[in-house]
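FW: tagging you since you asked about this chain on Friday. Here's the raw sequence from the shared folder, copied in full. Didn't touch anything.
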Amino acid sequence: MFKVSKSAKPTDWTTRDYKDPIVVRQLKKDFHGKCYICEQKHFPNLNVEHFVPHLNDETLKFDWNNLYYACSRCNSIKNQYYDNMLDCCNQDHLVEEWIRIYYRMPDEDIEVINACPSDHSFCEKAETSKELISKCFNNANSGIQEVTKEDLREKVIEVHSEFLDLRRVFFKNLDNWLDEEKIIEARKIRHRLKSHYPFSAILRGHMEKDSKWRKALEEIEELELQQSA
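HL: got it, structure written out here
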């Protein structure tokens, strides 16, 4: 999951249609064009998702704060079954800290961890979020789910492979770079860990488990701070 700073309700949304182009365009901007559950980007089958299932409640159906940007796969898996989750738009819900995601191999399930402290009041919400995100990445209970899982996994593999290419180039050239070049290259890497980037949680999960790369970036960040002092 990733943090979202959601904008105020669009003043020019005057219809009783939560799929109004005005709504969809603003949600796409707020959510960086990413599904708020799986974090894929540039997906063809877009859904305006109700964070709290509306169950034909008119207030929930058209509440701007209840409308989220999601892919059809995640929306269909979530459906009306999950209504006690961490909210990526709630600044008190530390979704990037409490939900950790690890991709390892193409045929292995993507692992989702609930890292919220067990005595925290939001731990149950984090556990529900973990269960849903795991299903969205790994479920293949029907022909449609098998195909959409394959498509989603290929996107994950592509982004993760590009990240590993950055790592290879980084260590191949690290000793030859000037300090200014090191800082620029480190910024490019950190850029991919931010909330706007596709599968940023998976890339952060990789960085968490890659102590050599993480420490090298920390040293460059310290260098950057020294130069700016």
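FW: The chain has a mean pLDDT of 96.
HL: agreed, and Residues 143-228 form one domain.
FW: great, closing this out.
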